[in-house]
Structures are given as C-alpha cells and as structure tokens.
Design brief:
Layout lengths: L2 E2 L1 H13 L14 H4 L12 E2 L1 E5 L10 H15 L7 E6 L2 E4 L10 E2 L7 E6 L25 H8 L21 H12 L14 H13 L11 H7 L3
Parallel strand pairs: 1-2
Antiparallel strand pairs: 3-7, 4-5, 4-7, 5-6
Helix pairs in contact: 4-5
Amino acid sequence: MAKLVKAGVTLRDQLNKAYSNRDKRSDGWVGDASHQARPSDHNPDKDGWVHAIDIDENFGPGWKKGTTAKEFADQLIQYAREGKDKGRLKYVVYENSIASGTYPDKFWTWREGNWGHTQHIHVSFTDKAEKDGSKFDLPIFKPEPEFETSVGDLIAEAKEPVSGMPYPGVNFIKYGERNDYIKAMQAQLIARGFEVDHGASGNYFQKTKDAVKEFYRSIGLTSNGMKMGPKAWDRLFGN
C-alpha cells in the first residue's frame, strides 16, 4: 500500500493549517499512469513509500495567485541550503526552475530550464523523510501578531514614503521574523524604490534581506541584510 513519507505529511499538514482555504486542485502525491510509465518520486518504492508531493500554487483568498507560492518555495530551498531540513529535502521544482543540493556551485539555488510545474510546487524527499516527520520551521508558517490597526497596511496603502515611525527594536526587524513592523518596513522600502519581490508580506526572508542590504548601501552603510538597525530605520522613515 502506498504511503507518503512522514516529512511530506507534515509539510502538507502545516500548509493546510496555515492556509485552510487554499486551492488543492493541483495537489497530489501518488503517481498516475503517466508517472508510472517512468521513474518518478511520485511512484511508491519497494516498501510502498512515496517521496514527493505537489502543492497547488493558489494559497487561497486574499493572496495573489502564485505570489505566496513562490515565497513558500524560496523559503523551503533556503531552509535546505542552511541544513535545517535535516537532509530530508531532495529537490524543489516550480515555474520551470529547480533547486537541489546536487551541484556544489548551485547548492540549493534556483536553476532555470524547462522543468515545468507551472501550476504547482513539486517537492521531492530523500529516504530520511520516511521516518522523520518533524515540523518545517519556515517563516511563512509563523502566526502574524494581531494589531487593532495594521500600520503596515496603512503604509502600504499610502504608496509613498511616510515619516515618523519609531523603531520597534531589533528583535522584531530581523531575518526569519513575521510581523506588522516588517510589513511597514517593506512598504516603505518599496515606496522608496527598492525591490521586494513578494511585496509587503510581513515576512523577513531572502528578498527582504536583499532589499535591506541594498538600502544600507544606498545610505553609505554596510550590512548583510539580516536585520535593520535603529540608524538605518530612522533614515528609512526620515526620523
């Protein structure tokens, strides 16, 4: 009997919990006839383990189709690049790009090509995923703090730089966090002409890190982009 590896079950359950209204029409795990006609991680191995899942790119109402999916895929490969997946991830495919740990010079970075999977994210798992069902600690799964009034949304709606927002503290404005202060920072960066690919999502991940690093460079400071300090924050908000 076919059975999905435990890491695949966990990742799918985490997504379903975080995005309970997401579209599942392109979801899948057991290979169909076309998969069975060729080698595929969707096909059960000799022990019945299936080492792959497909995740529909539409994460549900309130999210632009595909945008959150790309952010999730980016976070997943970053997670593997940092070794936090415990060797459970084999490769990830989305929008004709693939990422894996196969090649040292392209270690868990996107490689463009004719890889398909344009309506869903494909995730393949290693044998380690069969028994290890521990959770994937991705920023996208962290609950966003509730605010009576979302400052981040107000700044995003303004679509132009604002001033006077006090620095909330480095514990809130650092890589891997998800909150309204980050959303405000992202909206302000975008308003000032810096590129944040996924928009003001409130998630501090790779694209936000790159934008912060570029902002530091623009004001004559050096940073790896892992956090935004008070001096840079004050420059960003004109304090």
